[in-house]
Amino acid sequence: MTDDTRGAVGRPAPGDIATVTAAAEVLAGRSGRRGVARVLPFLGPAFVASVAYVDPGNFATNIQGGAEFGYRLVWVVLASNLVAMLVQALSAKLGIATGRNLAEMCREQFPRPIVWAMWVISEVVAMATDLAEFLGAALGFNLLFGLPLLPAALLTGATTLVILAMERRGFRPIEAVITAFVGVIAVSYLVETILDRPSWGAVAHSIVRPSLGSTEAVLLAVGILGATVMPHAVFLHSSLTQSRIVTRNAEQARRLFRFEVLDVVIAMSLAGMVNAAMLIMAASTFWTHGLVHLGSIPEAHRTLAPLLGTASSVVFAISLLASGLSSSTVGTMAGQVIMQGFIHRQVSVWVRRLVTMTPALAAIALGLDPTRTLVISQVVLSFGLPFALVPLVLFTRRRDLMGELTNDPLTTIASAFATALIVALNVFLLVQVLSGRG
Question: What's the CATH number where 175 sits?
Answer without folding.
Answer: 1.20.1740.10
